[in-house]
Amino acid sequence: MRRAEAARERRSRIITWTLSGAIVAGVIGGSWWFVQDAQNKKEAKQAAAAAPVKGEKTFKVPERNHVTTPVDYKMSPAAGGNHNPAWMNCNGDVYAKQVNETNAVHSLEHGAVWVTYTDKATEKDVNTLKERVKATPYTMISPFAEQSSAVALSAWGKQLNVDSASDPRVQKFLDKYVQGRQTPEPGAACTGGLPA
């Protein structure tokens, strides 16, 4: 009877140690998997953020001084450079008329994306873009006659030309460049400037 009791206790200990070991191994393995998965997702997100939006143009912007004189920008619409000391409000602001480029460039310096359109853009596209801008802080939209495409999106040193609001690159550009890494003055105000 004592032998049987000792054998039962030995079996119980073996089962307990085996189960405990399996649980500890499972916790360690599961924790490692979650950490690796989070790291992989973080690296994938960083890689996506570093990749340019297909078709975007990048411009070197050597100067960003405040000036009160006209500026001859090398791109149209402007996507950086010297600019007026006053910025355009860019907190989802919709402008019915073309705005002064030098004021808009100051908004880009603050991390805004400036959406512009010509009369080539359909009314439906313009309305879609206006609604998207209204829902997105650090953006603004205005007509702009002197651009080559129906719609252009400009951030500091970056620009994307598209033919319609339904182009999926529009949202990718906004996601990447609204207060993006290219912003010279991240967190600067997009209110308190020139109103619509």
TrEMBL record:
Membrane-spanning regions, if any?
A: 12-35
Going by the UniProt record, its keywords in alphabetical order are:
Membrane, Transmembrane, Transmembrane helix
Among the Pfam families in the record, one is: DUF3105
**Name the UniProt record assigns to this protein:** DUF3105 domain-containing protein
Organism of origin is Streptomyces zinciresistens K42
Upper lineage is: Bacteria, Bacillati, Actinomycetota, Actinomycetes, Kitasatosporales
